[in-house]
Amino acid sequence: MKKTLSRLRSRTGPGDACPIATPPTQSHAPSTIAPSIRRDGIRAHGGGGSAHGGGAYLQSLFSSSRSWVLSDHAQAPPILPLGEGLIWYNPIPEEEAELERREEEPKESSGGGSESVIDRIRSPALKLRRKLSFKSRRDRRGNSSQDAPLSVQDTPPFKKRPLIQPQSDDDEVSPVTSLQGEGPRGFSPAHSVTGVLTVNLRRLELITDRVGVSRCVSMVMQVDDVIRARTAVMTMTDSALQLDHSFSLQLERAQRLRVLLLRSNMTSQMQSSRTRLCAGGGVSLSTLFTDSQTVDLVLDLEPRGKLQLSLNLKVTQKGGGASVSGGSAQVFGAELTDLVQREMSEELVPLIVQKTVNEINRRGLKVLGIYRVCGSSSLKQKLRLSFEKNSSNVDLKGAELHDITGILKDFLRELPSPLVTLSLCEEVRRVMMSDPCVTLDPVQLLQCLPPVERATLSFLLDHLALVCSFSSFNKMSAQNVAVCFGPVLFIQTDQWEHSTTLTGQSGQGLDFKQHIEALHFLLTHWPVPPLQGPAEEVDGVLPQHRCRGRSLRHRQAGDWSCYHQRAPAAVDEESVLDVEAPFNCRLSLKDFDLLIQDFHMRLNQTEDRMASSRSCCGAPLLQVVLSVMLLLMTVACVGLIIAMATGPNTDPPPPPPPPPSYLIGLGRADCTGPPAEVPLMGYANAEQTAAGLHTRLYSRAFIVDDGRRRVVFVSVDVGMVSQRLRLEVLQGLKQRFGSLYTRENVLLSGTHTHSGLGGYFQYTLFMLSTKGYIKASVQPLVQGIIRSIAVAHRNMRSGRIFRNSGPLQQNSLNRSPQSYSNNPQEERERFPDDTDKQVTVLKFTDADGDGLGVLSWFAVHAVSMNYTNRLVSSDNMGLSSIIMETEKNQDLPGEGRFVAAFCSSNLGDVTPNTRGPYCSNTGLKCDYLNSSCPVGGTKFCQGLGPSDDMFESTWIIAENIYKKTKELYVSAVEEVLGPLHFAHQWIDMSNVSVRLNSTHTVRTCKPALGHSFAAGTTDGGGDLNFTQGSVEGDPFWDGIRDALLGAPSNETQDCHRPKPILFSTGEMSKPLPWHPTIIDVQILVLGSLAILGIPGEITTMGGRRLRKAVRQELQSGGSFKDVEVVVAGLSNVYTHYITTYEEYQVQRYEGASTIYGPHTLSAYIQQFTRLSRAIREDSVSGLDSGPEPPFVSKLFSLLPAAAVDKKPENSSFGDVLDQVHGVYRQGDVASVTFVAGNPRHSEMPDHTFAAVEKFDNLTQKWDLVYTDASWETRFHWLKGEGRRSNATVQWFIPDTAPSGWYRILHAGHYKEIKNFRPIIKEYSGQSEAFRVVDNYYTTRT
C-alpha cells in the first residue's frame, strides 16, 4: 500500500501543490503595549478586600482559578513571553507604596525586549502568602528572584527574544505566520473582538533531542489571561503530533489569544498528575482579524515548539445572549418563559436543562474536569439542532458528556435575560457583606426572581451543588464550578458597565470576579440534594453534603467552618499551571503559617470594627474567644508539626504486582485480493462478483507463550476458513518457522463476512459457487495470514491478559425462532433470550499496563451488507475492528500497534437484521413458518434493519459491538492466569459413533444437503421455489437430481431423516469430492479461558450445550476453576451448520445444512469433551492425530484470465472523465471518475486503488488522510463495452473533516499487448483540488 502511494506521489510531486492561487502570506503583529501594572485595577481588588473578606476568599481559590479572578478582565495587561512576565497577584495596602514607587522606575532593555516593571516582590510580612498563592519565575538574565520560594528547574530556559521583533521602522511581525485567510469584504473589527471564535488545532511540533520518549501533553487556551478551554491529555511519542480538536469560545471585547502547552507527569499511584508548563505563545486578536474571518496560523510556542491551527470568527450582536446560530429562536436564544410555556413543562424548567442535568447526574458526577473540558463543536452542533427540532425526542444516552455540558452552557449563555438578575446579584453580595450574626435561608434569596427563572435556577443550583459534592472525584469544587458558570449565569457585561457596584467602582473589569464570588458563595451554602437514580451509576459513593441545614452567614476572613476544604497547600515546585487544580485538604507547614498570619491580621481588623460599633454578640467576649482560639490553634499546629516530623509511617507498603506470566505478540496484515470479477463468498449468488472496494480485509494474529507452550489464534476477515486455506498456511508457516507453529497450536477463525472474495476451496460444491480455485484470491489470503503471524512473532514481549464479559442487547435477532422453540422448554427457560447476547473480551497489555490489543467474541452474522452489494467489505465485524484500531492508534486503518479482532461465535441462527423479515415487494411480514412471500417466494422475504440502508446498518451494528467491547476493555480487571494448553485431532465426521447413554448409540452420516438448503435464509433467499421447513421432497427436483447426479442411497436417506435430501454430497466425488469428511476439532486454553475451534456455524442452543459440556469436563478435576468457554466459529474447515437434534427436526435452512445428520452436535460434544479430558489430565500427547485430510493437487478454475484493457480515443489511463465540484460541505459526497484498467492486473494486497489527500499549508505538501481501507471511501469499478472500464472514487466527507483543500487520487494497472506479449503497466490520476468548508455562504468564490 505504501509503495503504491509513494509511486503515486512521485508522479504528482510536491510541486503539484494546490493549483488554486493561494493568498500571499500575511503577517499580523500584535499591538505593542508597554508591560505595566494598572494601579486602579490593583486597588480595586486590594482595597475592597477588607470590606467583604476578599483576602480569605481569594486565598481559598485554587491556583489555576485564582490567577483568573485576580486578573483585570476588562483591560488585561499584555501577555509577556514565558519566563519574562510577572505574576499578577492581590497586593495588600502595605505594599501599594512599593508598587507605585517601582512602577515609576525606568525599564531595562535586554535583547530588544521589554523588561518587567517589577522583577521581584519584597514583602517579608506577607512572604508566606505569596509562597502559597503564587509562583516566582526567572528573570531574563536567568537569575532567580531572591524571595522566590520556588523554581522551575525542570522547565527548559526560554529563548531570550522579545515578543515583537521589528523588521523595519514601519513593520512589526508577530511569531504567528498567517498562511491563508478568507472572509467577506468589509469585515473590520475594532481594537477588541466580540463574537464566537472557533479554534481548530491541527498539528503540534516540538524541538527536542529526546527521540522516542513518550510524553503526556495537553493544551490550554487563554483569552485575555482567562482559561477558556483545554484539551484532554494526549500521548506524544514523536516530535510531531497530528491534532483534530475544535473549540468554540464566546468572546466579549477580547484582545488576545494565548495557547499554553502543558506536560503531565503521573504520580506513583497513577491517580493524579502534576502539570508543568512546557511552552506557550499568543497572538493579538484585534490585529489578526482585520480583514478576514478565517485565518490559518502557525503559532510559535516558546521556547521549542510550533502549533498549526485555524481560527474562525463569527460576529454576534453585542450584549445579550443572541443565538449564535441565527434564525428564529426556538430553544437557544428564546425567552425562558416562552420556552417553558411552549414545552408545557410541569416543573417550569426547560426540557434541555432537565435532560442535560439528569444525564450528567446519571453518569458524569465522577468524571474528572466535568464542565471544564470543551466538547466537540461539530457534535455540539448536532445536539443543538436536535433540541431546536424537538427537545422532547432528544436522547442523550449515547452523547459524550463534555458535549452535553457544553450544550447546557451554550443554552444558558445565549438566554436573552440571564438567570441571575442584577437584583439577585446585589442581594447575594449584600448578604456576603452583612453582619456575621444575620442568618438567612439561601433558598429565600431566589424569591426575587420570576417563577420560571426561580425554578430553573433552583434546579440548576441543586445540580451544581451535587457536582461539587463529588469534588474528590471530579476535582470540581464550588470555586471551580463558580469559575465555569459565573460568567454564564449572571448579568451581562454591558449591563454592568451602566451600573455601579457595591464597592463604588465601575463594573468594568470587575463583573466576572463579582460573578464568581457570588456564585461561589451560593454554592458553598446551597443544600446538597439527595442523589436521584440507581445507586450503581455512581458506584455507591455518597456525595459530601456540605453545610446542609446550616443558616447562611457572612463568612469572616479565616473562617473555614463552612467548607470541607481547607487552606490550599503551597504550589508544587514542578507545577507552573495546574488546570485540573485539585484541592489539597491536607495542611502543609506553609499552610499553618499562612492561617496564623491571616487570622492575626483579620483579628486586628475585627477588633477595630468592634470597638467603633457594638455587635449583638458583644465585643469584649468576642475578643476573648478569638484570643483563646488563636492560642489553641498555635498549640495544635506546633503539636501537629512535631507529630509529622517524628511519627513513624506504620502503613505497610503495597505489595508489588506479580510479574507477567506470559509473552504476548500481536500482529495485523492486509489480505485483500483483487476487487474485480472474483465471486464474493457467502450468499452463493452467481451474479455477486466483486466490482470495487469498500473496506480492506485483514488478518489479525495473537500469540501467547507461557514458557512451556505457545498458542496462536488468528481472526481473518473472510467468509470462513477453508481446509485448503488452512493447509496452505500451515505449509508456509513450516517453511518459515519450522515446527514452532503447527496444526496443534494454530487456530484460524473467519469473521464470516459475506462480502469477502471466494476461490480458496478444494471441494466441488464450494468451488462451483465461486468459479473454482482462484490463485489470485488465495495468495493474498495465505500471505496475509502468515505475515500477521510473523508480525506477532516479532512483537513478542512480556504482558498480561484480562477477561471481561457483558450483555449487548438489541443488536441481534434469531432468524429461525421456529427451530429454536422446538428445543425443550425446560432448557429454553434457563436463558432470557433466544440468541446469545454475551460479549466476551480478552484484553492484552504489556508489562507496564499499556494496551496492546483486544479479542472480542459476539454471536451475530456478518450480513449487514446484503446480497446486492458488490464491493469487497469486511462487514460489521471487520468494521468494529477498524473503528477501535483507528481510535486507539490515531492512524489510518491497518496502521499502528494496537490490534482489535472481533470474532465470530455461535451465530448459526443469529442475524443483525433486527427489524425482522418483510416482503420487499409488498412491505408485509413474511410467512412465519416457511419465511416466504405470497408473490415472489423466498427471494423477496428479506430481513431488514436496523436501517433501510445496508451501509448505515453496517455502521450501527459495528458501532454497537465496538462500544460494548470498549466498555468491557476499559473495565476489565480479572486477570487470566495459569498455564497454556492445546489439543487437536482430525476425525472422520461421516462415521462417528456417538454414545447417547448406557443403552443407545447412534452414528453420524455421510454429508448431504436438504431441500430447504436451496431456499436460503431471510438474509438472502434462493431464486427457485424452495421453502424453508420442507420435510418432504419435491418429485420434480428429485427427478432432475437423479438424472444429473444420481439418487442418494437408502442408507444415507435413513441416516438423515427427516431431511429430504437434495444433494447427497458424501456420495459424489466428480470431478472432486463435494464435501469434506475429515475435519479439525481443536481447543486452545489460556489459563482460565478455553477457545473451541468449531468448523462451521453452530446455532445459539448448540453453542450453549457445547460450552456447558466442555466447562463441566474441565472443572470436574478441580484443576480449572471458574473457567470460561468461548466458541470460535468458522474455524479451520467449513462444514456448513451445526444444529441441535430438536432444531434439526424442523428442517429450516440451518437444519437442512447440517450435513452430517441429526446427531452432528452430539458428535462434536463427545469429541470436544475428550479433548478437554486430555487437557485436564495432561495426557494430550497420548491423543491420536487421526486421519489426515487430503491436499488436492488438481484443482480447476472457471474464471478466465483478465482481458486486455482499452481506453477512449484521445485519452490516457488515469484521465478524469467526471470531475469533482469546487466546494463541498461536511456530510457531502465528493466523487470523481477515471479512465481505468482492470483491478485484477494490480498486485494484491500491496496496491492502493484510491486515496484522499489534504494540502498542508505548513509544509506546502499534500498529506494522506484517507485510503481505500477507510470507511469514508468507496472504490467502484465498472466494466463497460469494448474492454473499456471506469473507476469511480467516492469520499463521504465526515462531519469532523477540517476545512481546507483536498484532492482524490486513483492508481491502477492496465494490460496491453506488445510484440504479441502481454505487458502490465502502471497508471495514476488525480482530481482537481477542491475545498471543504463549514458553510457555503461563508466562502468567497
Report what the structure shows.
It contains 32 helices and 53 strands. With 1341 residues, it is of the alpha+beta class. The strands form 14 sheets. Strands 16, 19, 20, 21, 23, 25, 26, 27 and 31 form a 9-stranded mixed β-sheet that branches. It has a 7-stranded antiparallel β-sheet with strand order 22-17-18-49-50-46-44, with no helix packed on it. Helix 9 (351-363) packs antiparallel against helix 11 (401-413) and helix 9 runs parallel beside helix 13. The longest helix is centred in the middle third of the chain and has 28 residues, at 619-646. It starts with a helix and ends in an 8-residue tail after the last strand.
Task: Tell me briefly what this model is.
InterPro entries: Ceramidase_alk (IPR006823), NCDase_C_sf (IPR038445), NEUT/ALK_ceramidase_C (IPR031331), NEUT/ALK_ceramidase_N (IPR031329), Rho_GTPase_activation_prot (IPR008936), RhoGAP_dom (IPR000198), SYDE1/2_C2 (IPR057459). The protein is an alpha+beta fold.
